[in-house]
Specification:
Layout: H1 19-35, H2 40-59, H3 70-82, H4 92-111, H5 138-148, H6 154-169, H7 173-177, E1 184-185, E2 191-196, E3 202-207, H8 209-221, H9 223-227, H10 247-260, H11 271-284, H12 289-296, H13 301-304, H14 312-322
Antiparallel strand pairs: 1-2, 2-3
Helix pairs in contact: 1-2, 2-4, 3-4, 5-6, 5-10, 6-8, 6-11
Amino acid sequence: MDGDGREGAPLERTSEVPVALARALDGYLDHLAVERGLSGNTLAAYRRDLTRYLGFLAGRGLQVPGEIREDDVRAFVLHVRTGSDGQAGLAASSTARVVAAVHGWHRFCTLEGLSDDDPSRAVRPPAQPRRLPKALSTDDVERLLDAAGLGDGPVPLRDRALLELLYSTGARISEIVGLDVDELQLDPSGSSVRVLGKGSKERVVPVGSFAREAVEAYLVRARPLLAAAGRGGPAVFLNTRGARLSRQSAWAVLRQAAHRAGLPRADDVSPHTLRHSFATHLLAGGADVRVVQELLGHASVTTTQIYTHVSVETLREVYVAAHPRAR
């Protein structure tokens, strides 16, 4: 055992979080809520990951942020990857999320003078396979949108408008269900929608003519009927009780439409599938990556560049069409 008593501390052991560590965690979460405007769900995820981290540190006998060393951070990363506390080991992507939370907390502690340096600075998350987003073909998108509008009454009109707007804007599902009526600008000469993205950042996104017509039809012929079942409110998309449509219900709308359309792997179609399809189709049509970045609300163009992959089929088509001796 070395001088600080950490050698041999069981990795699976977690303890009640010491007061100084708990206060540092609360201060960091307050900072994220106030300064960065993170959502309640995101804050809950940070609290969950960091509480696990601080419990692990307590199990190694650490009481204050200034006592934490790089070896402690590395041991924790191994701890969550292997599930040595009896919990399931985390995948590389989930471990990367936890490591990001740990980095953020340690940077906060350093800036607040709770520790002299950042022991997590040199710790990197495990490498993870690069997965390209799965996009629907334009034909499959049309089948999906047509399937959403099948049937009579206000609900099919709502569902068609919901999915048309998702695909037309590339917005996140939370951004679309969070829309209020006064955030829509529907005009044949140029329609747009104002969405509130991550970190409470607003952006204005153009709306195509097909989505505009679907939303107008819903607002005129369906939304008043749905609103009559509730107390009224500003939400664009309403459920059958007249309240704002939830993310879960919007997800179910998409899943049902995917099955009705007979799409391959319909269970894997998600709201993010339409977002991926939006970006991929724009770039395939010649849109500049930085324009797509703005439309998606990405903070960094690096995030958007994952969509710029070119399929083998596209490469072959371009090669055959352009090379003088390809045929």
